[in-house]
Amino acid sequence: MGRVLRLLIAIACLVALGVLLWFATLPPPLVVQGEVSTDRVDISPRVSGRIRVLNADVGDIVKKGEIIAELESPQLVAAMHSTEAALAVAQADLVRVNSTRPETIAARQAEVDAAQADVVLYQTNQQRQERLLITAAVAQAAVDESRRNLEAAIRQREAAQANLELAVSGASKEEKALAASRVDQARATLDQQKTDIAELTIRAPIDGQVTTRVAELGENFSPGAPLFSLIDLGHPWFTFNLREDLLKGLQVGDTFSVTVPALGNIPVDVRVTVINAQGQYATWRATRATGDFDLRTFEVRAEPTAPIEGLRPGMSVIASWKSGDR
Asked: What is the pTM of this model?
């Protein structure tokens, strides 16, 4: 029995030694370091202006739509007032071409009535002259003159009637269309200028924190010049740069665990959202002429599956990476 016991103990020791050697020779898990990133928004004015009010500074937390700065531009305000006056003139002209004063219509009607009276008078005179011509009481020249007078009176009546119709209908279709187009043009210009003036009020486009403030009171800024930079603290993500041979089995939507040293190495579950190839500058070059090949570097983005308090851009993220087990 003693020999059997010693044999069992020896076998157990050999097994234990083999297990220790196996664990000792196992390669350590690959530790991959990443970084916390988030969206950054650079805020710039759309129009030129001078800083009049500053409501935000570096470190401030702002809400979407909150006014963080106000610019002023006397030129834009003056141009808007000028356009308002031009719009009023165009609207008045449109009313003018689409209507006629009652006094003008009454005057044209009086001209028609007077011309009609002349026609009646010359018709009566012509009839009288023609009767007298039958009795040889007047010469033919007098009859011809009365006919010419009647024709002239009829033409005068037609001209007066045309003037009356023109007064009643107002301007032509082309003039009315031109006047309406001038009103539309002035109104469009005014709307654009009001939009430009509204752009002098700078609002935060997202909820975030101010990380950079370039704006200073009284300073002039042109369109596109940066005033502030904001970061979106509510939607951070993690970025890892991995060689392609470490991506085996990894797909968008997979989850794994990482730790954040700045937060006490708390474990964080993340979900892969993006796998992008980096540029040629990030290619790992083979060092042997044969038996090896170049490897591309890929950016892997992952988002935390649950909100994490205190997570900020730039923090390091550690992942124990085991390729091929996902």
From this structure: 0.63
Alpha-carbon separation of residue 26 from 19, 20, 23 (angstroms): 11, 10, 5
- pLDDT at 181 (0 to 100): 92
pLDDT tens track for 171-181: 667 888 888 89
Please choose, from the candidates 221, 227, 226, the residue with its C-alpha nearest in 3D space to the C-alpha of residue 50: 221
- Give dist(CA 13, CA 90) in Å, integer: 105
- Ranges of residues in the chain with a pLDDT under 50 are 286-291, 324-326
CB 56 within 8 A of CB 200: no
Taking residue 307's Cβ as centre, other Cβ atoms within 10 Å add up to: 9
Beta-carbon count within 10 A of 38 CB: 18
Reduced to 3 states (helix: H, G, I; strand: E, B; else coil), residue 316 is strand
Is 275 within 8 Å of 288 (Cβ atoms)? no
CA distances from 173 to 98, 162, 166, 176 (A): 9, 17, 12, 5
Tokens for 62?
A: 């702002």
